[in-house]
Amino acid sequence: MIRLRVKEIAREKGISMGKLQRDADLAYNTVRRIFKDPYYITTTETLGKLAKALSVPISDLLEEVPDE
Fold this sequence. Notes:
By secondary structure, the chain is mainly alpha-helical. The chain has a single domain, classed as lambda repressor-like DNA-binding domains (434 Repressor (Amino-terminal Domain), Orthogonal Bundle), CATH 1.10.260. The protein has 4 helices and 2 strands; from the N terminus they run βααααβ. The protein has a two-stranded antiparallel sheet. Helix 2 crosses helix 4 (44-54). The termini are close together.
């Protein structure tokens, strides 16, 4: 199972949900959903925009976790 680390990385960099949404040019609801649900299934295009806005490689946004 893949878990998104967007919220953690944004917090580490001091980037708010609103700033990330604007910098990544994404809908606010999309960013909010990713912050609230780290298991949210999203597109590679969205991941690319988030990674660029956070100045990290896409791989940093993903974490593999064992299935429960």
